[in-house]
What we know:
By secondary structure, the chain is mostly helical. The chain contains 16 helices and seven strands. The strands form three sheets. It has a three-stranded antiparallel β-sheet, with helices on both faces. A two-stranded antiparallel ribbon has the order 1-2. Strand 1 and strand 2 form a beta hairpin. Helix 7 runs antiparallel to helix 13. The relative contact order is 0.09. It binds zinc ion. Zinc ion binds next to helix 7 and helix 13.
Amino acid sequence: MVFNILQKNFTIDVNGMQEVHSSCRRTPSSSGQDNRIYDGFVVYYKQQLFMLVGECIAPVKTRANELSSNIKLKVFPVWQGGGVASSGGGWGQGWGRYMQWEPGPGDGGQDPVFDCPLWCVLCQGGRARLREAYQRGRGALRLPADMLSIRLPQLFDIHQVPKVFREDGIISGYRHPQSSALDCILSSFQMTNETVNIWTHFLPTWYFLWRFCILCCTQNFLSESYTWPLLVYMLLICVYPFTSSCAHTFSTMSPAARHICYFFDYGALSLYSLGCAITYGSYVMPDCWVNSRLHQHFVPIAICNTLFCTSLSCYSRFLELQFPHRSKILRTGAFVFPFIFDNIPLFYRLILCCGGSCCHGEALSSHCYHLLFAFLTCFLFASHLPERLAPGRFDYFGHSHQLFHICAVVGTHFQMEAVLADMTSRRAWLISQAAVPSFMGTLGALALCVLLNLGIIGVFSVPLLWNSNHSANHPLTPPSKRKQQ
Length: 485
Ligand SMILES: [Zn+2]
């Protein structure tokens, strides 16, 4: 924090008097004499401002151990002026004395440079005088304490945080591993290695919500059951980026909280895969597969996939520390498998039916862009590129998880456009040829899956919460050791 007092800038660390910066400058006066101006300290102490002024009685040396013999210090409340600490009078009389000093013998015309931490000053009896001045001036100057005491939380390097918080190739920018919820929210406005992860899913949430609101105005979601698959899909593409954004925000509250946050993230992603299956089963299924056995069982199989995906991805977190590769393979597989299943109708349309009757070219380009970004998303998630090639270079911008988020969102955008194109262009044919989407096959399936997924997340979360409570109440495990786990 910088104050400008009498045209001089003072940098003040409001939280630690040990870190107060000061300066002693030599400035030629207008008359050309070798007068020097010695800046004082402005000290913020117990919600009051104080001025500490050095009256130099000998040339100032740069070495800290020579300071005490060269400087006589004055301390007074800044709002009363220098005269309080000496012979009376206010700013007008007091400043002149403190602002100038004569060079002593042996100075050699060198510019005095003084950069001393405040404790150097206080150890000469300044602390008592400071306290006295504080008592005298209490209440005379009240600056908004909250404004001055807000300070960005410290960030940590990889070796300073427990293993469970470490990310491959990310060296710096870690938040405190036991942040409060408020710290976590505030950290989204501070540049950490999670900030871009948070915003790359928070902002798209609002984009998808905006698209959803427009569709609410143009589609009849209440009474037209043909639109219910789209309703489920739109709900889920708003939910999954928002859940991910929250997971990245609050993942540094504790190791258990981190796991639980990502359990919810995985749950939301697997629900999104259910949303894809419901829309693809209703709007994207090729003409020749409509009413087939696969079509009839498409959503029930997708529900099973969702449960499998959530369970496996949550389980993979327990293997992360001991078997990181196995954990990564299981987690990647947990999401790739439902993705491939959901896209079987689309693969058929693109590969085997291209140019044929079930091709429906209007949506084809959007479907292709979606698949392209989906493959990119998967590649980035699995490869940890580019930070794996240059650890530490992409800590804040450009690491794989940020690119993964962006590709996922762009892919979802193209998928939404493709689904809307198919839904609109095939409406008449699908309503006449296929069974109308049922409540149980759309919103009912979603509600069932939400409940089952919450149950799975609960099953995986309970042991973590129990363990963290148990270790917190266990006096034999020191907190420092617990942090290392
Ligand atoms: Zn993420």
